[in-house]
Amino acid sequence: MSLLVHIAVLFVLIKTCLWLWKHVHAKRRNLPPGNVGLPIIGETLSFLKTAPSGKFYRDREQKYGPIFKTSILGLKTVYVSGPEAMRQLFQLENRGLISWWPPSMQKLLGEGSVGAAPAELHHNRKKALVNALKKVDYTEICDQLGEIVNNEMSEWATKVKFEVHCHAKFLSIRCACTSLLGLDLTREEVGKVATMLKGFEDGLFTVPINLPGTAYHKAIQSKIQLYEFLKGKFQPQTSNTCILSSTGWSEDIMPDAIVELLFGAQETLSSFMTCSMLLLKKHPKVLQKLQKSIFGAGELSDATYVDCVAKETLRLFPPIAGGFRITTKEIRLKDYVIPKSWGVTYNIRSTHKQSPYFDDPDCFNPDQWLALSGCLPQLHYIPFGGGAHACVGRDYARVIWRLFLTTLTTRYAWDLITEDPVLLSLPVVRPDGGMWARLFPLAEE
Protein backbone atom coordinates (compact mmCIF):
# COMPACT_ATOMS: atom_id res chain seq x y z
CA MET A 1 0.00 0.00 0.00
CA SER A 2 2.85 2.35 0.91
CA LEU A 3 4.51 1.64 -2.46
CA LEU A 4 1.34 2.56 -4.35
CA VAL A 5 1.07 5.84 -2.42
CA HIS A 6 4.69 6.69 -3.24
CA ILE A 7 4.11 5.89 -6.93
CA ALA A 8 0.98 8.07 -7.00
CA VAL A 9 2.80 10.97 -5.32
CA LEU A 10 5.72 10.60 -7.74
CA PHE A 11 3.32 10.61 -10.71
CA VAL A 12 1.63 13.81 -9.49
CA LEU A 13 5.02 15.47 -8.92
CA ILE A 14 6.19 14.55 -12.43
CA LYS A 15 3.00 15.87 -14.03
CA THR A 16 3.24 19.07 -11.97
CA CYS A 17 6.89 19.58 -12.95
CA LEU A 18 6.04 19.03 -16.63
CA TRP A 19 3.19 21.54 -16.42
CA LEU A 20 5.41 24.09 -14.69
CA TRP A 21 8.16 23.58 -17.26
CA LYS A 22 5.75 24.08 -20.13
CA HIS A 23 4.24 27.13 -18.41
CA VAL A 24 7.63 28.78 -17.76
CA HIS A 25 8.93 27.79 -21.22
CA ALA A 26 5.84 29.26 -22.85
CA LYS A 27 6.32 32.54 -21.01
CA ARG A 28 9.96 32.71 -22.10
CA ARG A 29 8.88 32.15 -25.70
CA ASN A 30 6.39 35.03 -25.39
CA LEU A 31 3.26 33.32 -26.63
CA PRO A 32 0.25 35.58 -27.23
CA PRO A 33 -2.01 36.21 -24.21
CA GLY A 34 -5.16 34.18 -23.83
CA ASN A 35 -6.52 30.92 -22.48
CA VAL A 36 -6.37 27.49 -24.12
CA GLY A 37 -9.08 26.11 -21.85
CA LEU A 38 -9.44 22.47 -20.85
CA PRO A 39 -7.12 19.69 -22.05
CA ILE A 40 -8.04 18.28 -25.50
CA ILE A 41 -11.38 20.10 -25.90
CA GLY A 42 -9.91 23.54 -25.12
CA GLU A 43 -12.57 26.23 -25.62
CA THR A 44 -14.39 24.32 -28.36
CA LEU A 45 -17.74 24.15 -26.55
CA SER A 46 -17.79 27.89 -26.02
CA PHE A 47 -16.68 28.41 -29.61
CA LEU A 48 -19.46 26.29 -31.08
CA LYS A 49 -22.02 28.07 -28.92
CA THR A 50 -20.99 31.69 -29.48
CA ALA A 51 -18.82 31.82 -32.65
CA PRO A 52 -21.71 32.24 -35.14
CA SER A 53 -22.72 35.52 -33.48
CA GLY A 54 -19.10 36.70 -33.32
CA LYS A 55 -19.23 36.83 -29.52
CA PHE A 56 -16.47 34.26 -29.00
CA TYR A 57 -13.79 36.30 -30.75
CA ARG A 58 -15.23 39.69 -29.80
CA ASP A 59 -15.16 38.99 -26.05
CA ARG A 60 -11.61 37.69 -26.14
CA GLU A 61 -10.36 40.52 -28.32
CA GLN A 62 -11.75 43.02 -25.81
CA LYS A 63 -9.99 41.17 -23.00
CA TYR A 64 -6.64 40.29 -24.58
CA GLY A 65 -6.24 42.61 -27.58
CA PRO A 66 -6.03 42.00 -31.34
CA ILE A 67 -3.76 38.96 -31.01
CA PHE A 68 -4.56 36.16 -28.56
CA LYS A 69 -4.39 32.39 -28.20
CA THR A 70 -7.17 29.88 -27.67
CA SER A 71 -7.81 26.20 -28.41
CA ILE A 72 -10.70 25.22 -30.69
CA LEU A 73 -11.64 22.13 -32.68
CA GLY A 74 -8.70 20.22 -31.23
CA LEU A 75 -6.11 22.80 -32.30
CA LYS A 76 -4.28 25.47 -30.34
CA THR A 77 -5.02 28.60 -32.32
CA VAL A 78 -3.90 32.23 -32.44
CA TYR A 79 -6.45 34.89 -33.42
CA VAL A 80 -5.06 37.83 -35.39
CA SER A 81 -6.52 41.16 -36.55
CA GLY A 82 -5.28 44.58 -37.60
CA PRO A 83 -3.64 45.85 -40.83
CA GLU A 84 -0.03 45.47 -39.69
CA ALA A 85 -0.64 41.96 -38.38
CA MET A 86 -2.31 41.11 -41.73
CA ARG A 87 0.77 42.30 -43.61
CA GLN A 88 3.06 40.06 -41.59
CA LEU A 89 0.62 37.16 -41.74
CA PHE A 90 0.26 37.16 -45.52
CA GLN A 91 4.02 37.56 -45.99
CA LEU A 92 4.49 34.31 -44.07
CA GLU A 93 2.26 32.28 -46.41
CA ASN A 94 4.16 29.24 -47.71
CA ARG A 95 7.07 30.38 -45.55
CA GLY A 96 5.86 28.94 -42.28
CA LEU A 97 2.10 29.19 -42.83
CA ILE A 98 -0.20 27.15 -45.05
CA SER A 99 -3.96 27.18 -45.51
CA TRP A 100 -6.00 25.15 -43.03
CA TRP A 101 -9.70 24.47 -42.61
CA PRO A 102 -11.67 22.71 -39.88
CA PRO A 103 -11.73 18.95 -40.68
CA SER A 104 -15.39 18.90 -41.76
CA MET A 105 -14.89 21.86 -44.10
CA GLN A 106 -11.66 20.45 -45.53
CA LYS A 107 -13.27 17.13 -46.35
CA LEU A 108 -16.47 18.60 -47.76
CA LEU A 109 -14.74 21.14 -50.01
CA GLY A 110 -12.41 18.38 -51.20
CA GLU A 111 -8.89 18.43 -52.63
CA GLY A 112 -10.32 19.24 -56.07
CA SER A 113 -11.36 22.70 -54.85
CA VAL A 114 -9.09 25.72 -55.01
CA GLY A 115 -9.56 26.79 -51.40
CA ALA A 116 -8.81 23.41 -49.81
CA ALA A 117 -6.21 22.22 -52.33
CA PRO A 118 -2.86 21.05 -50.92
CA ALA A 119 -0.22 23.79 -50.91
CA GLU A 120 1.71 22.25 -53.78
CA LEU A 121 -1.39 22.31 -56.03
CA HIS A 122 -3.07 25.51 -54.88
CA HIS A 123 -0.94 28.01 -56.81
CA ASN A 124 -1.37 26.41 -60.25
CA ARG A 125 -5.04 25.67 -59.67
CA LYS A 126 -5.80 29.24 -58.59
CA LYS A 127 -3.80 30.63 -61.51
CA ALA A 128 -5.86 28.55 -63.94
CA LEU A 129 -9.11 29.84 -62.42
CA VAL A 130 -7.92 33.45 -62.49
CA ASN A 131 -7.02 33.12 -66.17
CA ALA A 132 -10.41 31.55 -66.89
CA LEU A 133 -12.24 34.40 -65.15
CA LYS A 134 -10.23 36.95 -67.14
CA LYS A 135 -11.78 35.53 -70.32
CA VAL A 136 -15.30 36.33 -69.15
CA ASP A 137 -16.70 39.25 -71.14
CA TYR A 138 -18.73 40.99 -68.43
CA THR A 139 -19.97 43.62 -70.88
CA GLU A 140 -21.48 40.85 -72.99
CA ILE A 141 -23.24 39.11 -70.10
CA CYS A 142 -24.33 42.30 -68.34
CA ASP A 143 -27.66 42.56 -70.17
CA GLN A 144 -28.42 38.91 -69.48
CA LEU A 145 -27.60 39.25 -65.79
CA GLY A 146 -29.54 42.50 -65.57
CA GLU A 147 -32.61 40.74 -66.91
CA ILE A 148 -32.21 37.98 -64.31
CA VAL A 149 -31.87 40.52 -61.47
CA ASN A 150 -34.95 42.43 -62.62
CA ASN A 151 -37.01 39.25 -63.12
CA GLU A 152 -36.19 38.03 -59.63
CA MET A 153 -37.01 41.37 -58.02
CA SER A 154 -40.28 41.47 -59.96
CA GLU A 155 -41.03 38.10 -58.37
CA TRP A 156 -40.19 39.47 -54.92
CA ALA A 157 -42.62 42.36 -55.48
CA THR A 158 -45.52 39.95 -56.05
CA LYS A 159 -45.23 38.56 -52.53
CA VAL A 160 -46.96 39.91 -49.44
CA LYS A 161 -43.60 39.48 -47.75
CA PHE A 162 -40.37 37.61 -48.51
CA GLU A 163 -37.27 36.51 -46.62
CA VAL A 164 -34.46 38.58 -48.12
CA HIS A 165 -31.45 36.33 -47.53
CA CYS A 166 -33.15 33.21 -48.88
CA HIS A 167 -34.33 34.99 -52.03
CA ALA A 168 -30.95 36.68 -52.47
CA LYS A 169 -29.37 33.21 -52.45
CA PHE A 170 -31.75 32.10 -55.18
CA LEU A 171 -30.84 35.18 -57.25
CA SER A 172 -27.10 34.62 -56.70
CA ILE A 173 -27.33 30.96 -57.72
CA ARG A 174 -29.28 31.82 -60.85
CA CYS A 175 -26.70 34.44 -61.84
CA ALA A 176 -23.78 32.07 -61.20
CA CYS A 177 -25.34 29.16 -63.09
CA THR A 178 -26.00 31.40 -66.08
CA SER A 179 -22.82 33.46 -66.27
CA LEU A 180 -20.17 31.15 -64.77
CA LEU A 181 -21.44 27.67 -65.64
CA GLY A 182 -23.28 28.55 -68.82
CA LEU A 183 -26.49 26.82 -67.73
CA ASP A 184 -30.01 27.91 -68.61
CA LEU A 185 -32.00 26.50 -65.69
CA THR A 186 -35.68 26.87 -64.96
CA ARG A 187 -36.76 28.42 -61.67
CA GLU A 188 -37.69 24.96 -60.44
CA GLU A 189 -34.22 23.65 -61.27
CA VAL A 190 -32.55 26.62 -59.55
CA GLY A 191 -34.67 25.81 -56.50
CA LYS A 192 -33.33 22.25 -56.49
CA VAL A 193 -29.76 23.57 -56.68
CA ALA A 194 -30.47 25.93 -53.77
CA THR A 195 -31.85 23.08 -51.64
CA MET A 196 -28.83 20.87 -52.30
CA LEU A 197 -26.40 23.73 -51.58
CA LYS A 198 -28.23 24.33 -48.28
CA GLY A 199 -27.71 20.68 -47.32
CA PHE A 200 -24.03 21.02 -48.19
CA GLU A 201 -23.63 24.26 -46.22
CA ASP A 202 -25.26 22.85 -43.07
CA GLY A 203 -22.48 20.28 -42.69
CA LEU A 204 -19.48 22.58 -43.02
CA PHE A 205 -19.00 23.30 -39.31
CA THR A 206 -19.88 19.94 -37.80
CA VAL A 207 -18.12 16.89 -36.40
CA PRO A 208 -17.03 14.95 -39.54
CA ILE A 209 -18.76 11.66 -38.70
CA ASN A 210 -20.25 10.11 -41.80
CA LEU A 211 -23.24 8.32 -40.29
CA PRO A 212 -26.83 8.46 -41.58
CA GLY A 213 -28.80 11.16 -39.82
CA THR A 214 -25.83 13.47 -39.20
CA ALA A 215 -25.52 16.88 -40.87
CA TYR A 216 -22.11 15.85 -42.19
CA HIS A 217 -23.55 12.77 -43.91
CA LYS A 218 -26.35 14.84 -45.41
CA ALA A 219 -23.79 17.37 -46.68
CA ILE A 220 -21.83 14.64 -48.47
CA GLN A 221 -24.99 13.30 -50.08
CA SER A 222 -26.11 16.81 -51.07
CA LYS A 223 -22.79 17.47 -52.78
CA ILE A 224 -22.95 14.22 -54.74
CA GLN A 225 -26.55 14.87 -55.77
CA LEU A 226 -25.77 18.45 -56.79
CA TYR A 227 -22.92 17.47 -59.08
CA GLU A 228 -24.88 14.63 -60.65
CA PHE A 229 -27.79 17.00 -61.26
CA LEU A 230 -25.59 19.65 -62.88
CA LYS A 231 -23.60 17.06 -64.83
CA GLY A 232 -26.81 16.05 -66.57
CA LYS A 233 -27.21 19.65 -67.74
CA PHE A 234 -23.78 20.19 -69.28
CA GLN A 235 -20.35 18.71 -69.94
CA PRO A 236 -17.75 20.90 -68.17
CA GLN A 237 -14.81 19.80 -70.28
CA THR A 238 -16.43 20.49 -73.64
CA SER A 239 -18.84 23.35 -73.00
CA ASN A 240 -17.51 26.67 -74.25
CA THR A 241 -19.84 28.60 -71.98
CA CYS A 242 -18.59 27.13 -68.69
CA ILE A 243 -15.58 29.05 -67.36
CA LEU A 244 -14.09 25.83 -65.97
CA SER A 245 -13.77 24.43 -69.48
CA SER A 246 -10.68 26.57 -70.08
CA THR A 247 -8.85 25.61 -66.88
CA GLY A 248 -7.52 22.33 -68.21
CA TRP A 249 -8.61 20.57 -65.03
CA SER A 250 -9.31 16.85 -65.11
CA GLU A 251 -12.81 15.43 -64.78
CA ASP A 252 -12.11 13.95 -61.34
CA ILE A 253 -11.74 17.35 -59.65
CA MET A 254 -14.81 18.89 -61.30
CA PRO A 255 -17.28 17.91 -58.55
CA ASP A 256 -15.25 19.82 -55.97
CA ALA A 257 -14.56 22.75 -58.30
CA ILE A 258 -18.17 23.29 -59.40
CA VAL A 259 -19.65 23.03 -55.92
CA GLU A 260 -17.00 25.41 -54.55
CA LEU A 261 -17.70 27.91 -57.32
CA LEU A 262 -21.46 27.89 -56.74
CA PHE A 263 -21.15 27.88 -52.96
CA GLY A 264 -18.73 30.82 -52.95
CA ALA A 265 -20.85 32.89 -55.34
CA GLN A 266 -24.18 32.36 -53.62
CA GLU A 267 -22.93 32.75 -50.04
CA THR A 268 -20.95 35.95 -50.48
CA LEU A 269 -23.31 37.76 -52.86
CA SER A 270 -26.48 36.89 -50.95
CA SER A 271 -24.82 38.21 -47.78
CA PHE A 272 -23.92 41.45 -49.54
CA MET A 273 -27.44 41.87 -50.98
CA THR A 274 -29.05 41.34 -47.59
CA CYS A 275 -26.73 43.73 -45.74
CA SER A 276 -26.99 46.44 -48.39
CA MET A 277 -30.80 46.40 -48.23
CA LEU A 278 -30.61 46.65 -44.43
CA LEU A 279 -28.10 49.53 -44.42
CA LEU A 280 -29.79 51.56 -47.16
CA LYS A 281 -33.16 51.30 -45.44
CA LYS A 282 -31.62 52.51 -42.19
CA HIS A 283 -29.88 55.43 -43.95
CA PRO A 284 -32.46 57.11 -46.22
CA LYS A 285 -30.15 60.05 -47.06
CA VAL A 286 -27.59 57.65 -48.48
CA LEU A 287 -30.33 55.90 -50.45
CA GLN A 288 -31.52 59.21 -51.86
CA LYS A 289 -28.00 60.23 -52.87
CA LEU A 290 -27.44 56.83 -54.49
CA GLN A 291 -30.64 57.16 -56.53
CA LYS A 292 -29.67 60.64 -57.73
CA SER A 293 -26.18 59.49 -58.69
CA ILE A 294 -27.55 56.60 -60.74
CA PHE A 295 -30.11 58.70 -62.57
CA GLY A 296 -27.42 61.27 -63.25
CA ALA A 297 -24.83 58.76 -64.44
CA GLY A 298 -27.07 56.86 -66.80
CA GLU A 299 -24.46 54.24 -67.64
CA LEU A 300 -23.53 51.30 -65.40
CA SER A 301 -19.85 51.83 -66.12
CA ASP A 302 -20.11 55.29 -64.53
CA ALA A 303 -21.09 53.99 -61.12
CA THR A 304 -18.77 55.77 -58.71
CA TYR A 305 -21.25 56.20 -55.86
CA VAL A 306 -22.71 52.74 -56.42
CA ASP A 307 -19.23 51.37 -55.78
CA CYS A 308 -18.85 53.60 -52.72
CA VAL A 309 -22.03 52.12 -51.22
CA ALA A 310 -20.89 48.60 -52.06
CA LYS A 311 -17.42 49.11 -50.58
CA GLU A 312 -18.86 50.59 -47.40
CA THR A 313 -21.28 47.67 -47.05
CA LEU A 314 -18.39 45.22 -47.45
CA ARG A 315 -16.29 47.20 -44.96
CA LEU A 316 -18.93 46.96 -42.24
CA PHE A 317 -20.14 43.47 -43.13
CA PRO A 318 -17.54 41.49 -45.08
CA PRO A 319 -19.38 38.27 -46.03
CA ILE A 320 -16.55 35.99 -44.93
CA ALA A 321 -15.40 36.42 -41.33
CA GLY A 322 -11.76 35.58 -42.07
CA GLY A 323 -9.49 32.69 -42.90
CA PHE A 324 -7.59 29.80 -41.36
CA ARG A 325 -3.89 28.93 -41.50
CA ILE A 326 -1.60 26.47 -39.73
CA THR A 327 2.10 26.85 -38.94
CA THR A 328 4.63 24.47 -40.50
CA LYS A 329 7.39 25.82 -38.26
CA GLU A 330 7.71 28.23 -35.38
CA ILE A 331 7.02 31.76 -36.57
CA ARG A 332 7.08 35.28 -35.13
CA LEU A 333 4.12 37.61 -35.57
CA LYS A 334 4.60 41.13 -34.25
CA ASP A 335 6.01 40.60 -30.73
CA TYR A 336 4.81 37.02 -30.31
CA VAL A 337 6.00 33.50 -31.03
CA ILE A 338 3.57 31.00 -32.55
CA PRO A 339 4.78 27.39 -32.24
CA LYS A 340 4.82 24.84 -35.04
CA SER A 341 1.49 23.05 -35.77
CA TRP A 342 -0.62 25.80 -34.21
CA GLY A 343 -3.59 27.25 -36.04
CA VAL A 344 -3.89 30.92 -36.99
CA THR A 345 -7.22 32.58 -37.76
CA TYR A 346 -7.58 36.18 -38.93
CA ASN A 347 -10.61 38.46 -38.70
CA ILE A 348 -11.52 40.77 -41.58
CA ARG A 349 -14.16 42.95 -39.92
CA SER A 350 -12.02 43.67 -36.87
CA THR A 351 -9.13 44.58 -39.18
CA HIS A 352 -11.35 47.12 -40.95
CA LYS A 353 -12.41 48.62 -37.61
CA GLN A 354 -8.79 49.09 -36.51
CA SER A 355 -7.76 51.04 -39.59
CA PRO A 356 -7.17 54.75 -38.81
CA TYR A 357 -8.30 55.70 -42.32
CA PHE A 358 -11.99 55.27 -41.45
CA ASP A 359 -13.23 58.18 -39.30
CA ASP A 360 -15.99 56.30 -37.48
CA PRO A 361 -15.45 52.57 -38.02
CA ASP A 362 -18.98 51.63 -36.88
CA CYS A 363 -20.77 54.26 -38.98
CA PHE A 364 -22.18 53.60 -42.47
CA ASN A 365 -20.56 56.40 -44.49
CA PRO A 366 -20.14 55.65 -48.23
CA ASP A 367 -19.02 59.26 -48.88
CA GLN A 368 -15.65 58.59 -47.29
CA TRP A 369 -14.75 56.37 -50.24
CA LEU A 370 -14.86 59.38 -52.58
CA ALA A 371 -11.74 60.66 -50.80
CA LEU A 372 -10.17 57.27 -50.04
CA SER A 373 -10.22 55.97 -53.60
CA GLY A 374 -6.65 55.20 -54.67
CA CYS A 375 -4.98 56.30 -51.42
CA LEU A 376 -5.96 53.57 -48.97
CA PRO A 377 -2.90 51.45 -48.06
CA GLN A 378 -2.99 47.72 -48.66
CA LEU A 379 -4.54 45.45 -46.02
CA HIS A 380 -6.60 48.20 -44.37
CA TYR A 381 -9.53 46.94 -46.44
CA ILE A 382 -9.67 43.22 -47.23
CA PRO A 383 -13.29 42.11 -47.83
CA PHE A 384 -12.01 39.52 -50.31
CA GLY A 385 -9.29 38.25 -47.99
CA GLY A 386 -5.62 38.60 -48.77
CA GLY A 387 -2.42 36.79 -49.61
CA ALA A 388 -2.22 33.65 -51.70
CA HIS A 389 -5.79 32.64 -50.81
CA ALA A 390 -7.57 35.92 -51.60
CA CYS A 391 -10.90 35.52 -53.42
CA VAL A 392 -10.55 35.56 -57.21
CA GLY A 393 -14.13 36.68 -57.91
CA ARG A 394 -13.78 40.42 -57.25
CA ASP A 395 -14.60 41.51 -60.84
CA TYR A 396 -17.61 39.20 -61.01
CA ALA A 397 -18.84 40.49 -57.63
CA ARG A 398 -18.51 44.09 -58.84
CA VAL A 399 -20.76 43.42 -61.84
CA ILE A 400 -23.40 41.80 -59.65
CA TRP A 401 -23.40 44.47 -56.94
CA ARG A 402 -23.74 47.24 -59.55
CA LEU A 403 -26.67 45.51 -61.20
CA PHE A 404 -28.30 44.69 -57.89
CA LEU A 405 -27.99 48.16 -56.34
CA THR A 406 -28.95 49.94 -59.55
CA THR A 407 -32.05 47.83 -60.14
CA LEU A 408 -33.13 47.82 -56.49
CA THR A 409 -32.85 51.54 -55.84
CA THR A 410 -34.17 52.92 -59.14
CA ARG A 411 -37.10 50.56 -59.69
CA TYR A 412 -38.25 49.58 -56.21
CA ALA A 413 -38.92 50.75 -52.68
CA TRP A 414 -38.96 48.38 -49.72
CA ASP A 415 -40.00 48.09 -46.10
CA LEU A 416 -38.25 45.93 -43.56
CA ILE A 417 -40.64 43.82 -41.49
CA THR A 418 -37.63 42.59 -39.50
CA GLU A 419 -36.28 46.03 -38.58
CA ASP A 420 -33.30 45.01 -36.45
CA PRO A 421 -32.18 41.51 -37.41
CA VAL A 422 -29.42 39.84 -35.41
CA LEU A 423 -26.56 39.15 -37.82
CA LEU A 424 -24.55 35.95 -37.49
CA SER A 425 -21.03 35.74 -38.92
CA LEU A 426 -20.43 32.02 -39.59
CA PRO A 427 -20.14 30.60 -42.16
CA VAL A 428 -21.06 33.99 -43.67
CA VAL A 429 -22.78 37.15 -42.40
CA ARG A 430 -26.51 36.47 -42.44
CA PRO A 431 -29.61 37.34 -40.38
CA ASP A 432 -30.43 34.95 -37.57
CA GLY A 433 -33.96 33.73 -38.23
CA GLY A 434 -34.12 35.64 -41.51
CA MET A 435 -34.86 39.22 -42.53
CA TRP A 436 -38.38 39.72 -43.84
CA ALA A 437 -39.32 42.57 -46.16
CA ARG A 438 -41.88 43.92 -48.64
CA LEU A 439 -40.89 45.22 -52.09
CA PHE A 440 -42.89 47.77 -54.10
CA PRO A 441 -42.37 48.87 -57.72
CA LEU A 442 -41.72 52.60 -58.01
CA ALA A 443 -44.22 54.56 -60.06
CA GLU A 444 -42.81 55.41 -63.49
CA GLU A 445 -42.52 59.12 -64.12
From TrEMBL:
BP term (GO), one: sterol metabolic process
Cofactor(s) demanded: heme
Signal peptide coordinates: 1-26
The keyword Oxidoreductase appears for this protein: yes
GO molecular function: heme binding; iron ion binding; monooxygenase activity; oxidoreductase activity, acting on paired donors, with incorporation or reduction of molecular oxygen
Protein name: Cytochrome P450
One Pfam family of this chain: p450
TM spans (from-to): none
Gene3D superfamilies cross-referenced by the UniProt entry: Cytochrome P450
Organism: Capitella teleta (Polychaete worm)
Residues that hold heme according to the record: 391
Family: Belongs to the cytochrome P450 family.
Keyword terms of this UniProt record: Heme, Iron, Metal-binding, Monooxygenase, Oxidoreductase, Signal
Keyword Heme among UniProt keywords: yes
InterPro entries: Cyt_P450 (IPR001128), Cyt_P450_CS (IPR017972), Cyt_P450_E_grp-I (IPR002401), Cyt_P450_sf (IPR036396)
